[in-house]
Amino acid sequence: MAMEASAMRRLAQRKLEKRSQNGNRTPKRVLSGGSGGEQGGGDSDAEEGSMDEGSCTDEDEDLEVNHNRLLYLISLYNTQQVGPEDKNADQDGQDKNIWVRRVPLMVLVYEGIVAGIFDYDYAPAPDIVDGKRVYMNISQEGRDDLDDLREAGMLYGLKLSSKKYQSTVALRITTIGEEHLRRTLTQEDADAVDGVVFGPNKRHVHANLLKVSWDRRMGRFVLRCQSGYEMESTITEIESVSYVSSPYIPSCVRKWGRESKRNTDRTGALVNAVSNIKDELDENLTLNDVRLVIGEWIPMGANQIVALNDKLGSSERVQGGFFTSQVDQNPDSSEFIGISEGLTEVNILDFDETAYVNFEAEVHFPEEEGIIQIENFGIHINDEGFINYGLRCEGIMHAVQDYLSLDNLSRLLVDVQVDSSKIIDNLMSPHQRVMLDLTYLNDAEHREKYNLIFCSRINKAGVEAMPTAEEFMDREANENELKQVIGDTHASYQLSSDDEVLIVGKNGMVLCSSDTHRLEPQMVSYLSLMTRNMFMRSLFQRTFILADTLKHIRELIDTYESDPNSITTIRNLLSEASGDIILLSEIQSYLAESLQEVVLPTVPLDGAAQKLEAILNIEATQKRLVRRVHDMKKNIEGARGEVSSLRSMADVVSEGKESRVQEAVQNNTKNLEDVFRANERASASLEIMQIVLAGSLAFDIIDRLHGLYLGVAADIDWANNAFGFIYETPGMLLLVNMAWWGVLGAFIQGLIKHMGEQAAGVMSIRYKINQTINWPAFERFICRMRPEVEDGDTDKNTYIKKFTWDEPDAVLWKGLPPRIEVTVDARYHYLLKAFLQISTKKSKISQREAKLIFFRRMRDEGILTGVVPGLEDAVEVAAAESARRSTSRGAVSVVPRLSMKTWNKSTSIGGGAEGTFSAGPDVSSRNLTRAQKSSTDLPG
Description:
Layout: H1 2-21, H2 35-40, H3 43-54, H4 58-78, E1 80-81, E2 94-95, E3 100-101, H5 102-115, E4 123-129, E5 132-138, H6 140-151, E6 155-161, E7 167-173, H7 175-184, H8 187-197, E8 211-215, E9 220-224, E10 230-232, E11 243-247, E12 285-288, E13 291-297, H9 302-312, E14 321-323, E15 344-352, E16 356-363, E17 373-382, E18 386-396, E19 399-400, E20 404-405, H10 406-427, H11 430-439, E21 450-455, E22 457-460, H12 469-472, H13 477-486, E23 489-496, E24 500-505, E25 508-512, H14 520-558, H15 566-596, H16 607-616, H17 618-706, H18 717-728, H19 732-760, E26 762-772, H20 775-785, E27 789-794, E28 799-806, E29 819-825, E30 830-839, H21 847-860, H22 874-898, E31 904-909, E32 913-918, H23 921-935
Parallel strand pairs: 11-17, 21-25
Antiparallel strand pairs: 1-2, 3-7, 4-5, 6-7, 8-9, 9-10, 11-18, 12-20, 12-22, 13-18, 13-21, 14-15, 15-16, 16-17, 17-18, 18-19, 23-24, 24-25, 26-30, 27-28, 28-29, 29-30, 31-32
């Protein structure tokens, strides 16, 4: 209890200090609710308790409720009922070692705001989700209360780092926080939170808690519980406001050309403007005469600037025009059909062909009915890679020129960040896009940019005087609103007594001065360095990811025997790593060159400018960035050496596998040799047996020829008379049998040899085609051919199939039709190979004719279109087609004349032989069929 009381006193003191900085506003109640005074025992504690009990307003009650409800919400996710045998279970059978991540917690806070249980505002802000930068409706007040609870000792904070080296925070309630909830949490507060975090009509058990998960496919958060209930969160649906902006480019980057246009005459449209903001905004700070300069750095050089000026038509008589991100798929056609929405209109202001270009860009995107958005950029791009997008806010919603709300400005900044990426991505080269995708992990579309906000005055609601620099850092309403536009605030500086203030945040700065133009050179120069700093952070993070990839490759090499796919995986990863190192080295060289060319601005002599220079310290910042770039080169070179080492190790692994394969092949070859010798011996034995069987057959024929073996010699005197000499001569019958054996054996051997020669006469033709095919036509063709063999080979990338069939048309192929085997890629619809087997003994077709017939059939069936390059000659194919058509017309024209009448006359056929030819209707049809068949008996 003493620890809790001490924590309460610290938080109470901090709250009092904050409130005292806000113009003696009534202090809000702190979390202790007066308990600190009751338990502290000291005079100061008693005064604290008295203050809490006697000077509370409705706003004070809200603060206590928000803190308690937020703490209770976190506690629900920190506890899970487990079995007593669980090692993490406490005496009540609960596991309290569960941490809740900050991003899912902010989703739950947003849902609580929508449901009305938290009295917070929210505004769009980026955060890292699933390795990508996502804009969400974040409550800065909710985050501030989380910081309050951590400072009071009621929450633990755990810093985590992902595989992509992106850090996040997880939270867990402490024993002090648990004790505080037991004493102060009301049933009303608990019921309000339970209504949000538990599914509808569900028991309040841990299994029914709504868990936040990211749906990568839909690109939004989903809340679901184990019982099956789920709902989609609208936290990623960024609200839109109406505004009118004019292009703005700082004068320090202009050299010549006309001034940027102003859209002040279009602010009248804001009178009836609307927004789709669901929350009721609590506007605490407003700005006058706002100009936004948003900067980023991309790899750029003089050649890219020349190409960009050429693309923009900077040197043409009519410069600029409309640009679109839509790709022209058919540049040779006479027309292009595209939508007019989403086009970017570009007007050139001034340029140097090899150094820079300044232009205006107006974006035309469709918006909801009633929302007016005139988004007009001023864009500066130079050969160092520095890009800034400038806007002058003429009006936002119903505020024109002055009193522009930071809540609305944060929503305008989201549009500027997203749309500026779309504009410049359409103007970059493909190689630059590849480098950005590498640096930002394929999320270059949502890359981080740095915000500069210039204004002439910052107004505080209800206070006539402008707050001082110290009052902006109040850790409450003022600071929370500033966080919406520049990220986490670091410091605030009073540049002069004339309401000149500089506020520095993680993602931007706010400069308030009645004469910002004299300070622009310093601010823009510092902006260019901060954009390099942002890019360098992402690039340095990418080098660590590369190092992890190389470490993974080394592990794969050490355990390659455990995975049959390891060699392929290692080669692919090494190839990707080598490509990444080449790009990283190129990007590093662009960074180094750009930092060498930084020109430090001339500092005015007035006190505010001198103090600003001391704060920004541009020269020292530039030197630090140079050191960081050189340090990064060491990492890249180290990775290059590691890749070389890993490649050598991979080669050793491959050689080892190849040697084992070679040994296996040698063993198989030896086995095949043994089998071959055994087959030779068996073949010799078979030939001997064939001769023996031929002799047995010959002897049986002789026996059956003279008939004496029948045992009826007395009844066949003619046999005795005819063969008496042979029987009566010793050995004569044996000689006759042996002679007949020799004749029959020679005949059988010759017949076998002839059949072997007939079977051996095969012409094999292989074609490597690799052409896309009409897959439905190919499937219909294969169904008609009825293939004898169908074989498939599938992996994660391809689906290879083989079909084998015998051609049916003997006339077309001039004899025995060939056997054809085709190999196709069934996934990507490619005809890869064709294999033709033609019997040269039974077919008279040549290789050239076979090629023409095969590819002609593929075209006739609609499988292929056009001549196959490299395999066919267009002139030869055209000549063959012409000959085929002319022969077909001649054959068809002869047959009808034969069928006109029946005639009987002497006709000379062949070599002068005479005969009678009678033609009738059936004969003419047969002749027509023959004529049509003969027309196909042509090459091509």
